[in-house]
Structure formats: C-alpha cells, structure tokens
Amino acid sequence: MDKARIYQKINEILVEEFEVDEKIISPEASLKESLDLDSLDYVDLVVIIESNFGVKLVEADFEGVVTFQDFYNIVEQKMTVKS
C-alpha cells in the first residue's frame, strides 16, 4: 500500500468512525485538537487502525505525534516494517 492510499484510508476511518469533518483533516493540523477525542476514542482509533492495516501500535508510538502527518508516518513505518 502506497503513502497516498494509507493517508486516504486513515482519513476515511476518521470520517466514518469518528464523524470527523474531512475539511479539518490536513497533514499539518494538530491531531489531538482537530479530533477532540477522549481516551476511549483513542483506544478505539488504535484498534481500528490495527485491524485495518495489520499493524500493532503501542503507547510509545504516539509520544512524538502532534500532527496528522506524524500519525500517517507512524502507520506507514509500521507497514514498512511489517512487509
């Protein structure tokens, strides 16, 4: 799966599962502020991403995540390691 498809799939998940307005999703936008998810929502996000991409995310993966681009990069890195 290429970068563009990873980004597109993540965005689709955010819009469908968390009712995020796709207009606020941009690579440089703050993930936390834009999504306004509580801690349970983040757990759901991790589970959904893991099941859709076949990767394992741990708390340490999120330490440097500020923007959507950071999140895309984590998923992309995990997919690269997996293959």
Write the layout of secondary structure elements.
Layout: H1 3-18, H2 31-35, H3 39-53, H4 68-82
Helix-strand pattern: HHHH
Q: What structural class do you assign from the helix and strand content?
A: mainly alpha
The tally of helices reads 4
Radius of gyration: 12 Å
Task: Name the average pLDDT.
Answer: 93
Q: Identify low-pLDDT runs.
A: none
The total beta strand count reads: 0
Walkthrough of the structure:
The chain is mainly α. 61% of the residues lie in helices and 0% in strands. It contains 4 helices and no strands. The chain has helices at 3-18, 31-35, 39-53, 68-82. α1 (3-18) crosses α3 (39-53). The model has no long low-confidence stretch (mean pLDDT 93). Residues 1-79 form the Carrier domain. Its main location: cytoplasm. The modification O-(pantetheine 4'-phosphoryl)serine is found at residue 39.
